[in-house]
Amino acid sequence: MPFVTDDPNMLDDWLVVGPAGGSPRTTRLLGETLHLHTDVDGTPHARLGADTLTVQSRYGFLWVCPSGRPARPLFAFPEYAEPGRRIVDCGGLGVAVSGLRVIENFLDMAHFPFVHPDYLGKVPHTEVAKYNVDVDAATDEIWATDCRFWQPRASAAHDTGSEVFYKYRVMQPFSAMLYKSSSRPDALDAIGLFLQPVDDEHVIAHTLLAYFDDVSTDAELIAFQHTIFGQDKPILENHAFKRMPLEGRAETPTRGDTTSVTYRRWLRERGMRFGTVRVAA
Hints:
Strand content: 35-45%
CATH superfamily of the largest domain: Naphthalene 1,2-dioxygenase Alpha Subunit, Chain A, domain 1
Distance between the termini: 35 Å
Number of domains: 2
GO molecular function: dioxygenase activity
InterPro entries: Cholesterol_7-desaturase, VanA_C_cat
Helix content: 10-25%
Order of helices and strands: HEEEEEEEHHEEEEEEHEHE
Domain Vanillate O-demethylase oxygenase-like C-terminal catalytic: 101-269
Protein name: Aromatic ring-hydroxylating dioxygenase subunit alpha
Mean pLDDT: 90
Structural class: alpha+beta
Number of strands: 15
Shape: globular
Radius of gyration: 19 Å
Keywords: Dioxygenase, Oxidoreductase
């Protein structure tokens, strides 16, 4: 199939292509135009020209395996079906940069006070406390745990500052989750970031919330996420390198970048080529 890459990290995995259901439509994936439609019984279909692609409907989205030979099942997202959670699709937003850059930004707490002042951070609360990062041997997923950061307004339902506890999870090169303090002391809200790779330097970012929130309206929750994403977008799109340099010498990490360092090493070990760039010494 004439996709713009032969990277098995993309061709042999499940890639999001937009919300499930709806009218027949077209969308872009890996440089090609796909035709999507769903039968009255809910069965999804995806075509590239005359070819029928392997597709499934999960978590409110359609997922395509471009090669038809998925190397692994789609990741688990048990919070999606957990009783009491509100599921809110925040829509898809285009970003003109490699999806690897978007995931790395999602994992970065250090930029909160500078890019999201009065929302996710505020000077002088700039320190990133030590946290733990591991790669789960059973699932090959990255987990960052024991993360915490002081925030003046952590969500649409908060209007006062507090220390917020986070867990980050990277399931695929273009899919990640954030779990954070919720209104229930024994539970965490979940935010899924699922990136649709249009090509090496363009993605559509789909954000899904699985929240315990009986205060905010859907419109308020969506507006909050769009505000945060709108603050990130111009910075992401003005990187010196649109694609991700995986060599350690290209961009110098700090102590707060432990998750980013692990993510880049994880990508190198997978032989990731799509969305990357080699930087001369």
